[in-house]
Amino acid sequence: MNEQNAAGDNLYTLIINPGSTSTKIAVYQGESELYRETISHMQEKEMLDKRIQEQKQDRKEAILQSLKSHQIHLSDIGLITARGGLMRPVESGTYEVNDKMISDLSTNKYGEHASNLGAVIGVELSRETNEAPVYITDPVVVDELEDLARFTGIKSMERKSIFHALNQKAAAKKAAAALNKEYEELQLIVIHLGGGISVGAHAFGKVIDVNNGLDGEGPFSPERAGTLPVGDVIKEAYSGNYTESQLKKRYVGNGGLKSYFETSDTAALEKRKDAGDTEIDSVLRAMVYQTAKEAGAMASVLKGRVDALIVTGGIANSSWICRELENYISWIAPVLHYPGEDEIAALFTGAYNTWNTGTKAKKY
Ligand SMILES: Nc1ncnc2c1ncn2[C@@H]1O[C@H](COP(=O)(O)OP(=O)(O)OP(=O)(O)O)[C@@H](O)[C@H]1O
Ligand SMILES: CCCC(=O)O
Hints:
This protein has helices at residues 3-10, 45-49, 56-69, 99-106, 116-128, 165-178, 230-237, 244-252, 257-261, 266-274, 278-301, 319-329, 343-357; strands at residues 12-18, 22-29, 32-40, 77-83, 94-96, 134-137, 187-193, 197-203, 206-210, 308-313, 335-339, 362-363. By secondary structure, it is of the alpha/beta class. The chain folds into two domains: 3-143 and 343-363, ATPase, nucleotide binding domain (Nucleotidyltransferase, domain 5); 165-339, ATPase, nucleotide binding domain (Nucleotidyltransferase, domain 5, 2-Layer Sandwich), CATH 3.30.420.40.
């Protein structure tokens, strides 16, 4: 065992993963997970209604509270790894957090997203204690789009690759292992069903097309409106009823299920549907329908040569939704389910391997 490995056995790693409706955290000692916790914010309406950077203190305090309740001192933490947010497009991999990245994330230079807070909170916690190194892996801006996928139909506008890259890649690699193949050998469609929904076409290790739910592409989801009729959007934009940021929030944070039912809690809505609410039944079925349509589009992108479809994210815990979705898509290829997400493990592996092997992290 080399010195780094020996030290690694005692290293405490803090993992921070802010999602649209929750902050997930975990602490590892060496390679063993000490605990993980999902701090749900779904009941904290006032907090979620705030701009992302204004949520920082609440989410940071929730993390500190969680560490305290597990008797872990911040000063014990030797490595911090966080979900990466909206910054300039980058290739897949593990990045060391630097000042340029923090500036882009904290000023929302490339847009607002809960994941912007991961590295920002990570660096604050590091600076407040022992300057632990802070990494991110596979941020939401991983860009492997094929050139053809970038066109919009308006010369001055290009599509952007923004999606649940971390969980899509982690789930795809897990599926590849289950299929006894390398990720780079397969063509897969990954359907991430979270607060946002993204459906990616993975061709031989690259996500060559994916809907960007932050820019009004693809299915509606618990919090995103998805594709909207552009004429109606223009009318709302010029109605005088909304500022630019209010309109963004209307379509991106408060769209989808939240627009219909003022909650993005799919599990709770499913219970109300089961109790006989027919409107909820229709809207949930419509969300499944639109998701299936996006998967069909990605099957075309892969020219029908699809090894498997992978359904993942929080909503994949619903066997009813998975069954309804499968009814539409099982003709494409076998459907594999990885409910929830493996972002915590993916963030840990990316940072710990980089740290433990002395490999240079990528530079932003
Ligand atoms: N058993 C379940 N049945 C139905 N829906 C569920 C279940 N468990 C969780 N969900 C739903 O999953 C959604 C949250 O998913 P997830 O935790 O993947 O999202 P997130 O991390 O907050 O956001 P994102 O994935 O977009 O970053 C919520 O709508 C929640 O109600
Ligand atoms: C992860 C970026 C996409 C979304 O949140 O909808």
